Amino acid sequence: MACGQERLSYAELDRRANQLARLLTGRGAGKGSLVALVLERTPDTAVAVLAVARAGAAYLPVDPRYPAERCAFILDDARPALMVATTDTVRLLEEAGGNRPALVLDDPAVRAAWAAHSDAPPVPAGPASPDEAAYVIYTSGTTGRPKGVVVTHRGIGNLAAAQTERFAIQADSSVLQFASPSFDAAVSEIVTALTAGATLVLAPAAELMPGPALAEVVARHGVTHATIPRSEEHTAELQSPWNIGCRLLLANKNRAHAVDAAAL
Known about the structure:
Layout: E1 2-3, E2 6-7, H1 10-26, E3 34-37, H2 43-54, E4 58-61, H3 68-78, E5 82-85, H4 87-94, E6 102-104, H5 108-116, E7 133-138, E8 148-152, H6 153-166, E9 174-176, H7 184-196, E10 199-202, H8 212-220, E11 225-229, H9 232-237, E12 248-252, E13 256-259
Parallel strand pairs: 1-10, 3-4, 3-5, 5-6, 9-10, 11-12
Antiparallel strand pairs: 1-2, 7-8, 12-13
Helix pairs in contact: 1-2, 1-5, 6-7
């Protein structure tokens, strides 16, 4: 993974995910439970996704940039066993009210406990089934109140296999994690990159807005695959000669379009 100046190898990702899975298990996560991830786009987010799976639980992505009231509704409706957050995202949710058990990843005591755990994979509570829940995603709620949709491990595995092949994502690819954590597209970006052995590129939300910052992220990290909104502002920036290495651009509006970035 790459985020700014930070780099994380697959060996380090594996080690940190196993340690966090053990920490989550000790806090009540496990087979049949739901863990909310209220996190910005950082390497810890991908680590947490893997850790929840290795703990035997399913994860619930909650975008901390959503209105606090919507975040509170989702958490109240889903009733996760545990919430994984940071100091900033916990504060945002506290403003909406409610008292939820949380593991604050940037708390020094939590970081120390995380690092102290064994990096061996945790022992599962029982045999895993492809039909068990992998994650829960909430609909946009444009036609009413948001509703949670359960996606199984079978579904996520089929998605990763199909898109990795269709988009020709390989070990030398760099996939941009652009979508909101609460959108299915974010799941696709993470799982296709990691199952292909590619580089997952993350950046702060401010660097993903239309403009030179987004183009600089794509150029700096040699992004080869990106899914972005279909807008003049975004595509104009990605026409830059800096970005001719981008092999595939999925311009996403009401439907997905595969575009050869070199032809933009």
